Amino acid sequence: EEAELAASLEKKDDGVCRIMFDPPHYTVMESVGTFEVTVIREGGDMSQTIQVDYKTEDGTASHEGDYIEAIGTLTFGPGETQKMVTLEVLDDDVFEEDEHFYIRISNLRRKDGKPFKEIEVEGEDGKKSMQAATQMGTPHMATIMILDDDHSGIFGFEDAEAEIVESVGTYELEVKRISGARGKVGIPYSTEDGTAKEGTHYEAQEGELMYENEETTKTISIAITDEESYEKSLIMYVSIGEPRHIAEGKEGEGVDYSELDNKNPEELTEEEKIALLGRPCLGANSRIQIRIKESKEFKNSVDKMMQKANNSMVVGSSSWLEQFSDAFTVQADEDDEEEGEEGEEKMPSCGDYIMHFLTLPWNWSLLSSPQQQFTTDTQLLSLPLSSLVDVLPSLEMLPDILVASSISRTASTLLLS
User: Which residues contact residue 317 at a Cβ distance below 8 angstroms, ignoring those fewer than 6 apart?
Assistant: First the structure.
């Protein structure tokens, strides 16, 4: 079925040369100024020089105030397949509905004035007939839609929720102005407590954002307090109020809505009623929820400290009997174990046995009794720093040894009590 559909959509070259618009629809902003539409020639014999006339036509848009009327002739030389027509849209500063107009091509002819030769053409129904070798194609009319950009704007936040970390310092919250930016507009704003409290977790803000003509973005700066709290998750809110249009009488800034508001509604013209629809308004997201989370760096640091403490407690909680057994067990050096194949148990080497028996008296002195363990840890902690430098392989090990000694001392105290 897909193959049949593709075949039906595929253009068939029946030998006829056709002139048409491609594409047949254009959408432009009122402020676009000038733009181009495209007329193409395709298929058949393109060796002749041909001409075709073009002319714009009113739709809901009028050539008297919405666009410049265009009338002219396009000339395709031998082999030429494309020509452009330049159109111009007139911009004003009054809000109005979207409008459209047309451009049409007609009076296709040879430049030398001779008639087009006829060729035999097979129709879709399979019947053959004699037709002109060059014809008007479809579409021979294009539609231009003009989008009005004179609305004073729709104001709001991009999202209804946001999440920030407390270490952000100052959070810059954007308020967007879309669907038009005509005129000067003021937007009131304020912060609001949730589980986050002003003065404790953030600095309260209240004021008015002032958008100049054609300005589309403003920011609200909120200072966030960094408490370095673990697993913090607090909520605050920011709201914007109804916008107010500020008429300054400057050219290009749109209508003065206050003047239209002072008129009797029954006396308003249709154009004035439409113009009132262009006044500034709030969008869907006029209130945003902001969740303040703890700093990831702070949380990771705390998690690592807790993990190390837990590991140290596991090591320090082994029984005195287990430590005694481990002291008399000859184990392979860790570096040697890494060099072995994965899953293969490495047997102690001769050097491992020699080192084991040389350190056995030291291990025995540490494990002879819980009281002796406590005494040894205390002696180690009481050594001056100069002595520790000679004993320890690196000063980087000092914090770990102090932690381990503290845990061992605590365990020993519990055993004696």
Answer: 411
Specify the DSSP element, H or E, that contains 21. strand 17-21
Using one digit for the tens of pLDDT, what is the confidence trace for 176-197?
A: 998 778 889 999 999 999 999 9
Supply the mean pLDDT for the chain: 78
Distances (CA, A) of 68 to 61, 90, 103, 146: 11, 7, 12, 13
**Tens digits of per-residue pLDDT, 286-314?**
999 999 998 766 556 666 666 655 665 55
**Which of the 8 DSSP states describes residue 154?**
E
Look at the pTM and tell me if it is higher than 0.90: no
- Sequential DSSP letters for 307-322: HHHHHHHHHHTS-HHH
Residues 6+ apart with CB under 8 A from 35: 26, 28, 86, 87, 89
Both structure tokens of 323: 């430590």
Taking the alpha carbons of 68, 70, 76, 82 in that order, is the dihedral positive or negative?
positive
Q: What is the H or E stretch that residue 370 is in?
A: helix 370-382
Express each pLDDT in 163-177 by its tens digit: 999 888 999 999 999
Q: Which two tokens stand for residue 175?
A: 């308020």
* Beta strands, E only, 111-232: 118-122, 128-132, 134-136, 141-147, 154-156, 161-165, 170-178, 184-193, 206-211, 217-223
Pairing outcome for strands 161-165 and 287-293? parallel
